[in-house]
Amino acid sequence: MTRRLAFALVLAVLAATPLRAEEIGRFYLHLLQVQLLLHGYDPGPATGEMTGRTRWAVARYRQDAGLPADIDFLDVLSHLRYAAPRVMAKPRPGGHASARVAAAQYLLQKLGYFIPPIDGRLGEETRAAIAAYRSEHGLAGTEIDDALIASLTATAQRNGVEVPSVIAALDTPP
How far apart, in whole angstroms, are the C-alpha atoms of residue 3 and residue 69? Predict the structure, then answer.
């Protein structure tokens, strides 16, 4: 059996492991999905709904973090928020969720510029929110760059928004 096939089988078993989604509720599931996105894992849009993609992202995170297969969602959420060193997914090109985009969406949403669920994808609604924020704050450009993240972070903190520490770590090399 090849190494790649063995890894895929392990992830499939982990993804099928029963999780306590019903017990933790939509609120904590939403927090878990946001944290997975901020760490570069793709659980799908952060809606608080259990999906196969969310289970798969949790399984990938568990594998990368070396966590036991039977660890529940609340423990995974705690690990995502407080573990040091941080476990970040390797960036994947081509349509996959991006931790950097998710961070911008998170901050834009907290500041009232972005309404849809955070999904880590740079779609039209995200681009419109970025353009509106940049226009109102006198920032040039159209992309999610260091200046935008720094401005969003500073504005959020001035407005009393708690900024997850993982957002500050996005610009720090692993």
Answer: 19
